[in-house]
Specification:
alpha/beta, Carbamate kinase, Archaeosine Trna-guanine Transglycosylase, Chain: A, domain 4, 2 domains, eight-stranded mixed β-sheet, 13 strands, transferase
């Protein structure tokens, strides 16, 4: 059990809320009715690197307590590959894709066995959901994820979500999700959960003196505090948690990073105790469509000049043909595309009204020229601001 950390004393200039941290934490955590909890590979393993059944039992007890109080809890669980390595007595993670997928297949069964056993004393069944990146990119599948999870909760079961390492390729080789921190953020998007809780082996974001920040208002203000590191079993570090925080808080939900081995951590967090780091949500919640736009991978990129970048990024304007400098990739009307500034920064993404071939024809043109060229097929905006999400 971790020792009680010092109180927060820093100001909002470093990205930390200047208000009373305990009051801020109660405001966003005590009223939560839906929670996504992510557990990393290192946290789920014992000292020998095996799946820690006692720890899973502890988590299940906490989840059962929250469910008895009317809180919906969805678990995003790492650990399939780590469990497979131990089950097969392999000394290290394979680099060959087929071997890695086989390890995940063996480990996923072992992982779900562990969760089922942990929840059995509480008479709570568990439901396995395996996701690939395409399940987020395609809007109908993104929406169906929410419907499925809600139906699982209606049966009083506990959804256990993991990356589908057994059939995916991008996630294992190119790390398209990045890690389960990002997967958990995307699940939070889909479910519109009140809080994402990333349980790890550290007590939140630490300052230069090694003390945890208790409340962070601006994610950008905390990035200078973070070391880019990762565990031997997991794929992510604190930097990926900040990326997840940017996604979640930007949509209007809270996120917490906390030490998963702290005794009774989940009920303590929702009671507003000063444990872990709370990332404060944006004042406005994103609409459902814009949540998906912000989560989906762009099918292509539209490069814009400085004037268009300022209009989109600072003035919340639609993207017009006149400001477009270059088109990258092949896409059709209605696809999600990224808007890239002249310096290469992705500033927004949105639903395009035009196919990539048509944008090539009209880029740099004023609206009257576009209407003259395309007639009834012309739109004033390439991407309307209502169908756009800023990064």
């Amino acid at each position: 059990m971790s020792s009680q950390p010092q109180e927060e004393t820093t100001t909002a200039a470093s990205g930390v809320v200047a208000d009373d941290p305990s009051e801020v934490r109660r405001r966003y955590l005590a009223s939560a009715k839906s929670l996504v909890v992510k557990l990393g590979s290192q946290l789920l393993s014992d000292k020998e690197g095996r799946l820690d059944a006692a720890f899973l039992t502890s988590v299940a007890t906490q989840v059962a307590e929250l469910k008895s109080r009317g809180v919906q809890v969805t678990i995003v669980s790492s650990g399939a590959i780590a469990a497979g390595l131990r089950e097969l007595n392999l000394p290290k993670r394979p680099t060959d894709l087929g071997m890695l997928q086989a390890v995940a297949a063996v480990g996923q069964r072992r992982l779900m066995d562990g969760w089922a056993a942990a929840f059995a004393p509480h008479k709570l069944p568990v439901a396995q959901i395996l996701l690939t990146r395409e399940d987020i990119d395609e809007r109908s599948r993104f929406l169906n994820l929410r419907n499925t999870v809600n139906a699982i909760h209606a049966f009083n079961a506990v959804p256990i979500i993991n990356e589908n390492d057994t059939i995916s390729t991008d996630e294992l080789v190119k790390l398209t999700f990045g890690d389960n921190d990002i997967l958990a953020a995307l699940v939070t998007h889909a479910l519109r959960a009140d809080v994402l809780c990333l349980l790890s082996v550290v007590d939140g974001v630490l300052d230069e003196a090694g003390q945890p920040r208790r409340v962070i208002e601006e994610v950008a203000g905390a990035r200078s505090l973070v070391r880019v590191d990762k565990s031997s079993l997991g794929k992510g570090g604190m930097n990926s948690k900040l990326n997840a925080a940017q996604m979640v808080t930007g949509s209007g939900e809270a996120m917490v990073v906390a030490h998963g081995r702290m005794e009774n951590i989940l009920p303590r967090l929702l009671a507003g105790e000063m444990v872990g780091t709370l990332f404060v949500p944006a004042a406005r919640k994103r609409a459902g469509k814009n949540r998906w736009i912000g989560a989906a991978r762009p099918a292509g990129l539209i490069h814009v000049d400085d004037g268009a970048a300022k209009a989109v990024g600072e003035k919340n304007r639609s993207l017009l043909p006149a400001g477009i400098a270059k088109v990258e990739g092949t896409f059709g009307p209605g696809d999600v595309v990224g808007i890239v500034a002249a310096d290469g920064t992705l500033i927004a993404r949105g639903l395009t009204n035009y196919a990539s071939a048509d944008i090539e024809r009209i880029k740099g043109m004023k609206s009257p020229q576009v209407r003259s060229l395309l007639a009834e097929e012309a739109y004033d905006e390439v991407i309307h601001r209502d169908n756009m999400v800023l990064e």
